[in-house]
Task: structure prediction
Amino acid sequence: MTLLLEKPARAPAMTDKAPYWTMRRRDELAGWLMVAPQLAGIVAFVIVPLGLVVWYSLHEWNVLAGSFTFIGADNYAALADDQQLGPVLRATGLFSAGLVVLNLSLALFLAVLLNQKLRGTVVFRTLFFSPVVVTLVAWTIVWGFLLQDNGGVNAFLDVLGIDGPNWLRSGGTAMASVIVVQLFKNVGLNMVLFLAALQGVPAELYEAARIDGASAWARFRRVTVPLISPTILLTMILTIVGSLQVFAQIAVLTQGGPGTSTTVLVYYLYQQAFQFHHFGYGATLSLLLFLIVLVLTVVQWRMRRRWVFHEN
Amino acid sequence: MKTLTAALSAAALLALAGCGGGGSGSADEGPVDLRMTIWSANAKHLALFDQIAAGYKKDHPEVGKITFEPIPFDSYTTTLTTQIGGGNVPDLAWIFESSAPDFVSSGALEPIDKDADLVPSTTANWEKDGKLYAYPFSTSPLGVFVNTDLVKAAGRPAPAEQIAAGTWTWDEAAKTAAAVQARGGKGGLVVGDFDYKGWDTLNAVWAGWGARPWSEDGKTCQFDQPAMADAMTFLHKLVFTDKGMPGPGVTKDFFAGDSGMILTQISRAALLEKAKFKWDLVPLPKGPAGDYSVVGQAGIGVFKRGKHADAAKQFLAYFTNAENSAKLAQFFPPPRKSQLNAATLGKANPLLKPAQLDSVVVQGIERGTIKPSHTGYAEIQQTVRASLDRLWKPDADVKAVLAGVCSKINPLLAK
Result:
């Protein structure tokens, strides 16, 4: 508004020549300056690092010797030859698929349950949401103790007369354990998003469906799911992206073992870069991860037209 | 206009904040600050280091702060190399013996003066082309700490008695371990820092069978050799058949009185200061290949790319001179001939008896082999860990697993 008021004051003095600082230009400049901090942040913390990762991936970088040698596409050739990569991608896919399916179904199930107008639902909502605010590493360390062979989970199973497996030390159960630890950590967040969506579903639609004789399942399937589908899409994208970037849980609970059964992509790139000092190859792996996340997100975004309600 | 001014000043502030790091290049002026990364956070260790540093600063007014920066043991080398990669190079650092070849061969370290008093076997790991690249400040033999209360309660003779009778062998140690664990709730023998991941700690057991992970020249895998198969079969049986070692995923803290024996470095004796049980320190049991001893090492190096390499070298020379070495000896067995005797060590180690020091430390260092190391160690370590995971199951085929280890690491050893 200040700019608008100042313009007429100066205008009479410059009748023959149009002023450079027209209102439009001033507004444009102001606009640029407003977004400058945000833009500078994105350039400094997203664009430049991304460019650097591409640059690093073309080099062999020996941190100890302090050498940084251009090797062209050698790291990409190594990526194609890497025999570890197959198992790593399998583990990553398994983790993501397991987590997304379990997380979304459990979150939706809890949200539907806690959407009822019953006493005590607030307590349960708080209870299920509370792990979201707990520090990730603290949460994981506690689970690490519980899942030990002589830990809390097996002690509980023992009371029930069940001989529990060595959760974190055998192939199948280690992956399942990591998924479940992550599931309970974050299911509350998706649950809250679903709750918000459920509460936005108009009650008259249910009423109409009921009058038409729709069963509870049909009402859920034909009314609830389509109406909350934008939220399903959102939670799905967030959960998939998050699951592909899992690191701390693996580092604390299994260190990628037993064998390489829980070595997911981010943990593998950490090993390559920071433990084995192959920083160039680590950068190449991180580009692979970036590409996978990008493709999955684009695919989901494009597919949304087929199943997400409210979209054109 | 206010909006414009506010936006301009915000942009100017941002630009200033962005450039702030680059402007001050006057590192050479004013006092020189030194930083040494270490993996101990023990208050007594730090107090001693600070005391030595204070003594140095008295005669060196040009030195400002000397900081000892503890980094957790488990992620030590990773954190250190990340610091170096990020340009935050410490002036000095402790280095594990396993990473010695990587650090020494990379040319990252400054050569340092070699004192004639140093025992030759202690410096071998840290030399290249006749020059010494790190001071082996800790040369710590592995020994067995025994909770004699638990061993007696299990009806087994104390290891000290067995040593006197000449029967302190791995078979006897296994029987003792199994007897302790059979009483329930307690662990038998714990191998320190192993946890079914740090397999290199098992070197202290294999060496008794004459087994090595790879050949002396580092080129060939030896996991598939008969001696290794015998040693690993012994361990597998101890864990799963005799039940003398807590299994995978089970934690038993010796120092809290939860296990009968622990095989570890003698520098851990400090943890026994407040122990509520009777304990003893004995040498490693005799293996099928006879008496043996294994020594763990740690060095201190000076980084070429540190800001004050010369000042760091001078400080290192002071930190490890004969007088300070004698002080450090209370925690870290010294590599100096003149100090490797029970009398000197005894003054610094009130918790240990002269006989224990002589049998475990003095003779251990003289006879001991240093734990094997290799360039690219972290990758080999991780690959062997992943392959050996299949061994830690009751029905494992030991020989097949060990052959699998070799097929995985031979390409890495050949690099």
Observations:
- Chain B is about 40% helix and 15% strand.
